[in-house]
Amino acid sequence: MRTLNIAMLLDMAVAGDPDRVAMGSRGPGTGTTCTQLRRTAAGVATVVHRTGARELVFAGVNGPAFPVLLFAAALAGVPLVPVNYRLSTQALTNLLVHTERPLVVADEAFAAGFEGVRVRTPEALLVEGRAADPAEGLEGSPDDPAVLLFTSGTTAAPKAAVLRHRHLSSYILQTVEFGSAAPDDAVLTSVPPYHVAGVGSVLSNLYAGRRIVHLGAFEPAAWLALVRAEGVTSAMVVPTMLARVVEHLGGGPADVPTLRSLAYGGARMPHTVLEAALRAFPDAGFTNAYGLTETSSTIALLGPDDHRAALGSDDPAVRARLRSAGRMVPGVEARIRDETGAVLLPGAVGQLWVRGPQVSGEYKGSGEHKGPATTLDGDGWFHTRDLAHFDDEGYLFIEGRADDTIIRGGENIAPAEVEDVLLRHDTVREAAVVGVPDEEWGERIAAFVVVHEGAATDAEALRAWVRGRLRGSKTPDVIVFRAELPYTPTGKLLRRELLTTMQGG
């Protein structure tokens, strides 16, 4: 067992309780124990090593194969590369340019997306791994890459973020208490493997001793049914998932008595969705987890006590924390800087920089330039490119991406500020704001709006609503009504697609 290799986390779980069910159903004899997970992963590692692969690429839904492949890659001394199985053949081909000698494993439904590449199914690889001798002594050092994760590409072409064993291990060791879960604790995970939260969920729940229940394809009725059937005590969702659950409930209670903890993150949570969810899940403690791919998952948390205090407070400053990302997790430092690099005081909006042992800020090159490229400054600080501020008590407020800032007549306007006002209108279900090039003002404000089913409003009414609550310069110049907005599968808004729509029109 090597220090700060993610395989160490699995070895600790085996040593702590070898017969504990690590994942699967709570029915007798139906789950996979920690010992079984370790044995299968070690056998698959042997198979991977025999192929001479330098990376283990996986295209598949979240399921029992994913934890096996994650630890098998670690035990084989190669990085796991989970990719978005929804991408086109051309897009998947472009991603493979970032790899060297990959072994591609894909669910049967997605295998055709890899043109001209030999693809193995997870089931076949696991069968072969169970028959192989377990790998020994192949796992990499703390500085070796453990996972390559492609950024979402919402504002630029996807890049392969390099998360080394020391980054992921530091995240777990700093934020999770070993064996802290109760014997009946179970977590429902439905975030896809190619999202950093999917990786973090495997590691953190295994380390805590929480049984993992998988839901491959998210659907709100199936999600609720699985929570009830498996006695799920905690779950993690992205905002679009929670919005769909709330909409499915239609204002009624969720009726999931075992669910004690509900975490959300991955994108900005509309306050209307959060307040409806708090009413639907009155017995669940809510946690907002903020992080980035490049930071090995969560770097700030707004916990259940914070949610309750904010929701029940008459103090506007305390109530405002309901839309914050909470406080930084142990081991992570944060600063807000202006464009000159000067550190700003609480209350001032600037760009968020973070530093800590879990922060990577490193990308792998492609083509002829496959070497790593770090974006950390000389003192180890990573520029998140998120606009943010801290309040006087250290609560972090994310105002949006710096790249999304609209500059209208020399004034910087954060789309999130306008979106929040639109979302407070009774008829508005979703809202997205982008800047459109304009010869006179530099940019003009375009708002895309989805209204609730059966609701009726018009552009001028919504413009008047915003004008009455923000300065006139922040009122949308144009409002476009749409049946839906474009999101990534993990809930991030694709502003580029909206901007292309406006420019094309």
Give your account of this protein's structure.
Helix 1 runs parallel beside helix 7. Among the domains are: 299-401, Luciferase, domain 3; 405-505, ANL, C-terminal domain (GMP Synthetase, Chain A, domain 3), CATH 3.30.300.30. 47% of the residues are buried. It is built from 15 helices and 26 strands.
In CATH, the homologous superfamily of the domain at 299-401 goes by the name Luciferase, Domain 3
CATH structural architecture of the domain at 299-401: Roll
- Largest sheet: number of strands, sense, barrel closure: 7 strands, mixed
Q: What percent of the residues sit in helical stretches (DSSP H or I)?
A: 25-40%
What is the overall silhouette? globular
- Assign the CATH class of the domain at 299-401: Mainly Beta
The separation of the N and C termini measures: 59 Å
Strand order of the largest sheet: 10-9-11-12-13-14-15
**What is the average of the pLDDT values?**
91
Instruction: Tell me the radius of gyration.
Output: 23 Å
Fill in the CATH topology of the domain at 299-401. Answer: Luciferase, domain 3
Supply the number of helical segments. 15
Give me the secondary-structure category. Answer: alpha/beta
What share of residues are in beta strands? 25-35%
**How many strand units?**
26
> Low-confidence parts lasting 5 or more residues at pLDDT below 50?
none
